[in-house]
Amino acid sequence: MIELCVQKVHRATLRLLECIGVGVDSDAALGLLSDHGIRVDWQRRRVHPDEEQVQRALRSLPRRITIYGRSAEHAVILDGNATFIMSGGASLRVHTLDGGYEAATWEHLRQFNVLLDALPNVHMCVNQVDPTDEPQDHFYRRLAAEMFITCRKPLLFQVGNAADVAAMVEMGSVVRGSRAALQERPLFMVGLNAEPPLHIPRGVAEALLAASAAGMPLSLGHYGMAGVTVPATILGAVVHLNAVQLVACVLSQLVRPGAPVCYTGFSGVGNMRTLDVASASPHALRIMLLATQMGRFYGLPVYVAATSDAHQPDSQAACERATQVYALAQAGASLIQGPTSTMEQFMVSSFTQAVIDNEILDYVLAALAPPDETEEALALEATAEVLTDPWLKDLKFVGHPHTARHLHEIQWQPRCFDYANPAAWQRAGALSVVARATAVARNILERHWVEELPPAMAAELRRIAIA
Q: Which listed residue, of 100, 126, 129, 456, carries a Cα 20 to 30 Å from 305's Cα?
């Protein structure tokens, strides 16, 4: 059934590309496509790659993308064999540890970088907040500089144009030591966003060309609101998203065969009462699940999001996060953005919810871990001994060495979830998950130390950012 659905979306996408096309508002991109025999409607500024041209691009794309942190231990390998988690990003408000709300600042960004560094289930970082307390000149470049300086993990950078990409490549080359070293072991992925329906703005298109030329991994989101900016059906929304992904693939491979592109399956649903976005509705998840299957159908690593529309750390936030992460990981998503507190239609980030989300991630990833399939794991000999050894009559498997050898497979050690009996929970203060998570977050912010880049290198990055 799923395979038939995927084939139907693929065929419909090819028809859409033939008859309607995707808008690309860049002379450089349109010229490149036209020069390679792809039909371009210059008057309407729309492109119409055919099936053969799409398939040629798909064959050229790498099936594995590796993004490195400052050291190899932090590398994220996107190939469909494992799911990695990226922090949420770009919130304009912060839910503080005291329970209030504040406009996001550069200090909040640095605090979140400390927290995210300490959370083991966050494998990759994007700026958790968009600071609002200083002028916005060269904003994306300044964000990139601060993220390079204060983050050790692999990064994703938002960009607005090709000049942003050039500045970030220059910064990365400083950190790596050379442009060749950066290309061999990329520190970041470039995150781009089209404008639904079916439109790639000039700055975004030219940033895509620049990132591809530099060999930097990239993604091009087409975040539609079903019923508002894309069709109000699951298949219709995915056909729009898929068309933009295929055009991005074609463009990137014309610039540089083998340029790494991550299939991007973000989506939301329009609230038809208010026309606001519902980013975490079950229908948004259905769109992202089908998009994930499309990316896997093409053999590409898939990048999606797991968000929450809750306003504060609560049951809604936990339900939305856990359900989305579990379902998307099962579907084969390589990279999931958002499961570190992003709430309220991406507008709010919470230190407390970030800790709870890390716990949810730990729970889900532990549940999805494959079982030990060794002969000893079948426990046949241990079972026979427990049933026949008088010394084990009362202790049963607790007293058998087999249990000690395999504790790692059945024991989970949470930081803020509580599995104590009621009496022990009462003696410990009967704290809620939110209270325990707040204490964990406060302790991390007070005690965790992140090794920043050397001062001279940091100063050079900040100079590049405002040059």
A: 100
